[in-house]
Each structure stands twice: as C-alpha cells, then as structure tokens.
Amino acid sequence: MDLVAVVAALGALSADDADRDRAVEALRLATRARRMLDAIELRWTRLLADLAGSDPVASPEHECAEATQRSLRHATAAVRRATRSVAVPVVAEAVEDGSVSGEHLDAFLDALESLAEHLRPRLLELQHELVRIAATSTVEDFRRRMRAEVRTIEGDDGAGRLARQRRDTGVRTWTGRDGMWNLHGRFDPATALALVEALRRETEAIFHGDHPAGAPTDPVLRHQWFQAHALARLVTGGGGSGSGAPEFVVVIDHETLERRARHADSRVDCGCDLDVPIETLLRLGERARFVPVIVGSDGRVIAEGSRVAAPDELFDALHHPVPLDRGRSRRHADRAQRHALRAMYRHCGIPGCRVPFSRCEIHHLQRWEDGGTTDLDNLLPVCAHHHDRLHADGWVLELGTDRSLTVRREGVIIMSTGPPAHQWAA
C-alpha cells in the first residue's frame, strides 16, 4: 500500500460513528503514513544537504526550517538525521519502505556513534537482523536492544564508553529572553547515579512536606516544578532529605554480583536508562550498603533482608527479613518498602508506561483516606501523569496475588498486565 492508498484509507474512516476498533485502525494507518512521510522527508532533506555541498551560500538547515515551518532546532535535527543515514543504508532503506520509523533510525545511529571508530563495522554488519527486530519493537525497546548490542561489541562492559562519556560531561547556563535562568547539563551515567537519587529524595521530601507557594496544577508541570525547587535546595545547601553521603539505588542479581560480570539472564538496572559497567558499579559500591531481596519467577518480592556492608553478608541477612507491611502505623512507604518495589518495578506500574521508578510516586491502591494500609500488597509505583489520571477519571486499580494489575473505570476493565516480571523481559 503506497502513501496515496494509506491516506485514502484513512480518509475513508469517519469518527462520527467509530468504535474502538476503528479508532485503533485509524491510528495504525496514521503511523504507517507517518513512517512513509519520514522516508520522504529523509530522502529530500538528504538531497538538500548534498546540493548544499556544492553551493557555499546554501544553508540546508535554514531552508528546511523555512520549507517545513519548524524551528531551526528541529530542522537542524532533520538535516542531521538525513546526512547521518548515509552510513546505515540498510536501516535507511527500511525507513524508505515504511518498515521502521525515523526514530528507530535515530536509535541505530546513536548506538553506532557511541562506539569507537574501529568497532562500528561490527554493528553495521548486524543491520539486517536489527531492522527485523526494530520492525516489531517500540523505539524504547529498540534503544535498549541497541545498548545491549553495543555492550557486546565493546567487550569491556562499556568501560571505554564510560571514559568517553566522562570526557563529554559538562554544564552550561544562560539567561533566556524571558528572563528565566536556564541550566543544561550532561553527566556520565556513573556520576548521574548519585545525582538522580539525591534529586529524587529531595523532590519526594518537598512533595510530602509543605509545598512552596505557586505550584502548577498540571501533574507533569507540577513534578518538574518540584524537581526545580529540589535542585535549588540541594545546590544552595537547603536540602534536608539525605545524610550528606552519596546514595544511589541499583538493582543487580546475585549471580552477576558474584561473577562481577554480566551473564545471559543478568538483571542490572540503574534506573533512568543509565548504563554503567559492572566493575564501575562495584567500585562505587565499595562503601555502600547492600540490600538482599528474593524475587520469585513472577517478579514478586518474597523476602527482603536488612542492609549489610558487604555482598558476602547478603544470605545471612535474609535469615532476619525486614517487615514490608506497616499497616496504619505510617502514611507513606518506608525505605524497605521502596527497595522491595524497586526490585520488582523498573518503571511506572501502569501498563505501557515507561517513566522510570525514580520519577514515580508510591500510590495506595486503597486510598489511605478510605482506610487503606501501607502494606506492600497495597502499594504500586505510579508516575505523576497516571497518578493524576486515576484520581481524575476514577480508575480503580486491583492487584492479583501475583501482582498482576487490572485497571477498571466505572466497573469496566480498561487495561491489564501480568506480574511485574514482564517489566524485565525486554
């Protein structure tokens, strides 16, 4: 089906009497049309860039911005995608035939450029195989797959890449035309571990404490507003949520910890899509405390031990498990409960949502105000957007005994998902 046929099929659908199936079909057609338009834009933008090579006055970025009525920043990104695509002809061809999107192409190109020059041919050899995977993967899942391929090719678990990332670390500041002071930073993943956790803890302290005046009502903007105030407190010394020592949370399976290397079924998650070599994690953890958690095959936490100073103490700690149910004794989840939830969930518990756990709130399925308890079976990590949706739209969340989730609205199931193990499948 060519673009004309796709647009015709889309135009033939009427929203006036459409049901859910027709709406889903319309979105599928729109996605296919968008991919075809990605291909058209890629082809002509690449030609524009090629022509500019023989015309010193031409500026493909400005011409693209004028033609598409987009910002110069977006036009520059489009030109960059087009010129970079020459290096990956198989993936670019897949964009041309609509098999994958421009975002999949970006994911492949980003992975390619993260490799040292002499290693890039090895990834290029995998183009056909990876295009087949991309065709049935979300962009997020494909990026995760590309990170795994890069790690395999590097053969050093990303140590060389981390060294390059440390060299690329930097912060810049400027005052915008609106008078607002702007901050933009790039940090290597190892440094980011402690920064992410410190910002999360301070943001949570503000969320559960006395809110500064003027917070937005939109849940996403509100969370960003809390984060901005949390960062300001941390930088100016006004933060009070931590002990002063760097803290970070990493989920790592015991076999990987013992081997000091990844294996086929490794479960290593630093949060926020950060990718840190195992040896670097272990060096960072030399002065850290370890929390042992036993997780069943369905992803549920079976038991959690107390914090210990060294990995060889983990099994002993499990002989004295910590309580994970607090009843009505406290309003908010404690540290042990957060550790247990973090071991189960990589991101928001709502099906399909990929907001990292560190940016989620711990939600009571049965509201505290309605007599709900702060017990593990009544707690679920939920992002700010979905936290607002479930209150605004009256969603009712139910956890099965295996923590499979069912979401109802007005008694009708609107979405469901299996046990938390599925979050670790990709």
Give a description of the structure.
- By secondary structure, the chain is mainly α.
- Among the domains are: 162 residues, no CATH class; 78 residues, no CATH class.
- It is built from 17 helices and 11 strands.
- The chain has a 3-stranded antiparallel β-sheet. It has a two-stranded antiparallel ribbon with strand order 1-2.
- The radius of gyration is 24 Å and the shape is globular.
- The model has no long low-confidence stretch (mean pLDDT 90).
Q: Largest sheet, described in full?
A: 3 strands, antiparallel
What is the string of SSEs from the N terminus onward?
HHHHHHHHHHEEHHEHEHEEHHEEHEEE
Q: Work out the strand percent.
A: 5-15%
Distance between the amino and carboxyl termini: 31 Å
Shape: globular
**Spatial strand sequence of the major β-sheet:** 9-10-11
What is the radius of gyration?
24 Å
Output the number of helix runs: 17
Q: What's the number of extended β-strand segments?
A: 11
Mean pLDDT level: 90
Summary of the model, kept short:
The protein has 426 residues and is mostly helical. Among the domains are: 3-164, no CATH class; 347-424, no CATH class. The chain contains 17 helices and eleven strands.
